[in-house]
């Protein structure tokens, strides 16, 4: 910098001396020498101006590079003039600093982006004013089967319910919703936050799948409740049943009278209902008998064949069309065969019941591989279910059948949770239902 300052002062001094000498020649009347000396003054003036212009161009080039964030440019020092060399050196130092900052930011961005893609939480971000979609992670795309949308408003056509829930939710709110997804209706925790940058105001939406956590907690709660209930019922009813049986035997040995006949009838009723309650308690105890699945490999084709052989008489008798759909005959599952067969039998029996009063009763049994996740679907064209029934369909004791125990679907869901999977249902009144075993 000192050298550059000395050079500027030297050029200014030479220019001053040259112009002073030129003026002195004119005053002395030495016009010939003045004319001969004048080109030297012009050259010296041009040389000084050119130096300043060169410096200005260097500054302009650097400003242009900074404007477009082009910090990859390198200013050569090899053939640089004395006055430009310090500038180029400073520019290179600044570029190195900005490149380092830019590299760190890019690394942080990629790191954050990778984290966002790995988490099992659907994340979207959009600009509030225009609705322009700024970010949508892979889990969101996969969960709702939406590969791309340019604005948040386009979501209204893809998934109207999801769009309405997002728009209705105020920043800071945290709500639980059951939404339709590619995996079926699942419970999602919806959280909306708002933030502001120099580019505008934005909203960040997160949708966390808490379906499995809720199902597991709910299943454990029901297991504990059932354990207490069945224990108390059996302890209370067993003595009553025994006493009723003893009274009945003694009454049978007595001579017939009208008064004794009424007592005998009452005693038989008590005994019958007591035995029914004991049978009821023993049935529900099966919910607590399952511990851990005994996993084994089986082809889906073999599993479906076993089920068909078992249910064939009932299907033929009721004139039901059972379609087995298996695009990949070599598709294999690692499951507890007995438990999964039991779950599928429950679902198929429910499907048979659902189609008994419809024209052209049809049941489809299908196995598909959805990006490494195997699904088994049981679909019928039966009477379907209302939303109220769907909300309670997996609740123990809940049933819509006159002779049903309400244990089948609860047991089937528990079997799937034990396989680290889940059981989903979708249904529409008058059109049928689909149960999906998601492994």
UniProtKB/TrEMBL annotation:
SUPFAM superfamilies: ATPase domain of HSP90 chaperone/DNA topoisomerase II/histidine kinase. It catalyses: ATP + protein L-histidine = ADP + protein N-phospho-L-histidine. InterPro entries: HATPase_C_sf, HATPase_dom, His_kinase_dom, Sig_transdc_His_kin-like_C. GO terms for molecular function: kinase activity. Residues 228-439 form the Histidine kinase domain. It holds the Pfam family HATPase_c. The keyword Transmembrane applies. SMART domains: HATPase_c. The chain crosses the membrane at residues 7-25, 31-49. Its EC number is 2.7.13.3. It comes from the Bacteria. Keywords: ATP-binding, Kinase, Membrane, Nucleotide-binding, Transferase, Transmembrane, Transmembrane helix, Two-component regulatory system. This is histidine kinase. It comes from Albibacterium profundi. The lineage of its organism: Bacteria, Pseudomonadati, Bacteroidota, Sphingobacteriia, Sphingobacteriales.
